[in-house]
Design a protein that fits this description.
single chain; alpha+beta; 3 helices
Length: 88
């Protein structure tokens, strides 16, 4: 197992990735241009991914949060209306 990037090395990797890829990769694949704010592991560390540069991508916060839920096997919570029922 590869050692986890921490401290200055992790900050440097994040800066390199956001500079090289300043827009969200998922949004861009849908034809939408959104600024990337998060660096995401393509294969999550919890699922055996590494901190290798080839395993990181730039994402916007909503795409990162949605991908993280999928990586962790969580369901997306339904939005609840004022009447207490789930919104469509």
């Amino acid at each position: 197992m590869a050692a986890r990037l921490r401290g200055r090395a992790g900050v440097a990797q994040r800066k390199r990735r956001l500079t090289a890829e300043p827009t969200c990769r998922i949004c861009r694949s849908k034809g939408v241009i959104v600024a990337a704010t998060r660096v995401d592991h393509i294969v999550a560390l919890v699922n055996g991914g590494t901190d290798d540069d080839s395993n990181v991508q730039s994402l916007c916060e909503p795409c990162h949060d949605a991908k993280t839920r999928v990586d962790l096997g969580q369901r997306q919570q339904a939005a609840i209306g004022l009447d207490g029922w789930p919104l469509p």
